[in-house]
Amino acid sequence: MAVFRAFSAVRPAREYAGDVAALPYDVMNSDEAREMVKGRPLSFLHIDRAEVDLPRGTDIYDEIVYRKAAENLRNLRKDGILLKDEKPCFYIYSLTMNGRTQTGLVGCASIDDYMNDVIKKHEFTRADKEEDRVRHVDGCDANTGPIFLTYRTDEAVRKMIADWKESRDPEYDFTAEDGIRHTVWVVGDDSVCAAFTERFAGIPALYIADGHHRCASAVRVGRKRREAAGSYTGEEEFNYFLAVAFPDEELYIMDYNRVVKDLNGLTKEAFLNAAAEKADITEADFPVRPERKGVIGLYLDHRWYRLVIRPECMAGREDTAALDVTVLQEEILTPILGIGDPRTDTRISFVGGIRGLAELERRVDGGEACAFSMYPTSMAELMSIADAGKVMPPKSTWFEPKLRSGLFIHELS
């Protein structure tokens, strides 16, 4: 059963919340981060992507970057921008985008639950990205970005959250530059905190929705601290990591699309002929946003096409094999376009659905060969695959809205 407990968050003073809050470090590159922090001296990107305060060209994995992150965090504490709650609390966090709201509970999850598969994964992690966050967490002595968890909706938890929201004013309530509204309530009542922890103890599993690298890194740091301590009680903060748990029914998964640099030496006609053996292809007069599983959009040479995967290509597929991203990979990308491992092949890149189909057109019109628009993976598919102990192909899910970093920080000591 899941362990989820209150903690004393380091968080912005109320008047600074909107200035500190920042998108997760991994949804932008260094150049984009440098643009985002212009005119925003309090942005948490100065901590999560501290290279923005160092000369251009600085290796983002250089030790100086991690030292700068820790220094910037200390300065926000020293200047009174970030304050620490005097007692353990839970925090209710609502995000509203385009009229729909998802509400999660911010607390600390157990590294043992991760190791014992109570917290379930659906992606592999990359060693370099994992090592980066290990050094960042270790250097800052804190979890600076929340892990995005989900669970099968529990009506008792939903009611407890709703009751607290309805009877209290929020601590934070601001709309970010992208139009997403962020609202936070502090749950400081000991009996209510105990009730949340007790209720989560009856939830069989938590699932990582987003943040596999941050989660794996937090667990590695916790284990490292255990080894260094020699003995531990299990109550030390390094045994836990920062997380926000949302009910699955409230989450929104967008498409995660693919762009390919070249046609593997094929002409446009030869590629379409080869693809026609795998799918029924029709031209479209408008961008193709797939309306169901088994339908894939293709943008090629300034034209959109609708691909309906043939039944024989879908036959016998289950779990990860039945995902559209897998079907595309195994039926078209690998055998026709010669793209092997999408984790490492430099000829393929990925575009989150939040950027829209116009971004696919822009990339292809700008010189890349073709793009594929995908039907989104469902929450049911994600949970079923995680329950089976399997993993999805890379870049299978894009969750929106993104949790902001900097609103909650969990210190490890």
Report how far apart the termini are.
26 Å
Largest sheet: 9 strands, mixed
Please indicate the percent range of residues in DSSP E strands (runs of 2 or more).
15-25%
Radius of gyration: 22 Å
Poorly predicted regions: none
The counted number of beta strands is 21
Shape: globular
Mean pLDDT: 96
Structural class of the helices, strands and pairings? alpha+beta
Helix content: 25-40%
**Count of helical segments?**
14
What labels would you give this structure?
six-stranded antiparallel beta sheet, 32% helix, 413 residues, 14 helices, alpha+beta
Structure, explained:
The protein contains 14 helices and 21 strands. The model has no long low-confidence stretch (mean pLDDT about 95). It is an alpha+beta fold. The chain starts with a strand and ends with a strand. The strands form five sheets. Strands 1, 4, 5, 6, 8, 9, 10, 11 and 12 form a nine-stranded mixed sheet that branches. Strand 9 and strand 10 (about 180-185) form a beta hairpin. Helix content is about 30%, strand content about 25%. The chain is globular. Helix 4 runs parallel beside helix 6 (about 125-140) and helix 6 (about 125-140) crosses helix 9.
